[in-house]
Design brief:
The chain is an alpha+beta fold and 154 residues long. 32% of the residues lie in helices and 14% in strands. The chain is globular and about 40 Å long.
Length: 154
């Protein structure tokens, strides 16, 4: 069994990941991702993946929330350790379906979310930066170039 991934523990770390606005919701969980810029916390190499877990009281009482967190932790240890890009922080948010969803589907949900936030090993870079010209648009011209053409224009 692989060692557990380093955890996000402080509220400020969770808020920093949420502020990156890179997230994907699936039936079993919500994944938020943020690439760490600059210096990592002391004693932590830049290539490390860190993960935090949160489940709100909407999901259920303490026993149910803890079960959801345990299932998220098991899925994260299985998926993120092998497939996540190094240098990222992730927050996994439990949903009502996290507890009742089959574990294989939960793992598949996490793999899908990881791919959709472009934080899986082998995926191309940041979606905010990829293919963009310095002016901000993909082609380098005005943002809606060609939009003035009508439906019959060639």
């Amino acid at each position: 069994m692989a060692p557990a991934l380093p955890r996000l523990k402080r509220r400020a770390e969770f808020l920093r990941v949420a502020g990156a606005k890179r997230k994907w919701a699936t039936p079993g969980l919500v994944l938020q991702a943020r690439r760490r810029e600059g210096a990592s916390p002391p004693g932590l190499p830049d290539s490390t993946v860190r993960v935090g877990f949160t489940v709100s009281k909407k999901v259920g009482k303490a026993v149910v929330r803890n079960r959801a967190r345990r299932r998220l932790r098991a899925a994260a240890d299985r998926v993120l350790a092998e497939q996540a890009k190094p240098g990222y922080d992730f927050v996994l948010i439990g949903r009502a379906a996290t507890v009742s969803r089959p574990f294989a589907d939960l793992v598949r949900d996490l793999e899908t979310a990881l791919r959709r936030v472009k934080a899986r090993r082998g995926d191309q870079g940041d979606p905010e930066r990829r293919g963009r010209a310095p002016g901000g648009s993909r082609e380098g011209g005005p943002r809606n170039a060609g939009a003035e053409r009508g439906p019959g224009a060639a």
